[in-house]
Amino acid sequence: MPEVDGATAEVVRSYLVAAAEEMRAALVRTAFNPVIYEVHDFGISIYDADLRLVAESTGLSRFLGANDYSIRKGVEYVGRDTLRPGDVVLLNYPYWNAAHAYDATLFAPVFVDDALVAFLCVRAHWMDLGAKDPGYVLDSTDVHQEGLLFPGTRVFAEGEPVREIHELIRFNSRMPDAVLGDLHAQVACLRTGERRVAELFATYGQETVGAVVDAVIAAAEQSAREAVGALPQGSWTAEDWLDDDGITDDPILMRVTVTIDGGTFTVDFEGSSPAVPGPVNLPLGATIATCRVAFKAITTPTEQTNAGHFAPLVVRAEPGTLFHAVYPAATFTQWTGTVALELIYKALAQGMGGRLPASSGGDVPGFMMVGVHPDTGSLFAVSNNEPVGWGGTPGHDGIGPANHPCQTQARITPVEVLEAKTGMFFERMEIRTDSGGAGRFRGGPGLRRDIRFVTPGEFLSVIKKTKSPPWASDGGAAPEANRILLFPGTDRERAVSTKRTAVAAGDRVTVLTAGGGGHGDPALRHPDAVREDVADGYVSADAARTTYGVEP
């Protein structure tokens, strides 16, 4: 490999990152589905010929490691030697795809002068692939209830659409126009990346680009190893509980041990529950992705990500357990990964509490409505993931309401989109007073949303942490857990976690998301800060007096 000067290396590296961001813009501008173009529920990655991550765009944080895992499985299944210029391959088999069946991964090879020089990958959430229920599947007991499965199937061959596969998708979807539209949007994303990567190689040549990629990955590995070496050394264990698996009401044990020793950062889920009947089991690739989010955040958070950053990370989970689902375990409701991210931080906080916040709201309170739109007569299924409060830190209050740390580049679905595309009308959306845990630095507040239905349909609540509160740190107070109330103020009122419920016009639902945990003794909070909280509506006057001992 030739030696490359620093200026050339930075230009090539930045070009690859810019290419990933241009792929992102192409996807957002052409997608049919609000969860893609509004929420940004996608992940986009560029790899070298050896399938090493070299650049990514902003998207859903937990799709980073998932893309890395799935493209290796997909290329292995298809066979590198069978790939041709213009091919696009679809993979959604959960145990290889590292996600549920509706997170469709498309990948494509990039050829320059008949040489395979790179791979491109885009993962995005589709709304229907023929699962047993429309929208989200909340109570499946095996993967075959969760939709049509593709282990690595060409949807474009040498630049031409494979009509039989497109028609198979069309006839197995309740929303074929939207699903095929999103497929083509992902292909447009890949074609954008192909052009930009080919231009880069045409400008600098394969040897120079290869040398830059080697150097950038090596530098990232060195940075990550230095960061791990500077962390406290030791081993810490934490436990937490999921509400249930969607089949029974039994809580599910999650257990993790994080060990930092000798330049290695090991996350081990030994002691967690065996796989359960319901769809909360996590494929290994999704577990790795969750661990990568936590690892990156505390080692090299300000650096553009590539393969080198994860060299010190080791993830362990025994096959057949909650964190390593194997066929035919149900995997659709993957909120397990969200709660597990907080669990990793809970373990780490025992050894480095001076640099980590308390828990956020602990989960992503999701909801969706499924029904027939009165104006179009077509089926709709539109979702939203609610924000929560973030935990107080050793130096400042938690923010909130904000998206959960596992998906910080994602967004909520705008009210205007939800009301136009579904039968929901939003009567109230406001910050919840007293929802953040008290502390020297309080947790950020959660959110209240009141929904009235103007058409009949089904309301799906998707949440896995309502029975136990998020955790606090260093003497702070834990906040209330998340709550979803069906039919509030009536004799049918009840609290639920993950539930599919038939609703009629005039019915109501209230969504109450948790604030973050408090950090530090509330008695140490400055009185002026408490008074500002009261003025802002974050803390009530009563709580100021009883919790903080401050007269507002």
From TrEMBL:
It comes from the Bacteria. Pfam families: Hydantoinase_B (PF02538). Residues 5-522 form the Hydantoinase B/oxoprolinase domain. PANTHER family: 5-OXOPROLINASE RELATED, HYPOTHETICAL 5-OXOPROLINASE (EUROFUNG)-RELATED. This is Hydantoinase B/oxoprolinase family protein. It comes from Dactylosporangium salmoneum.
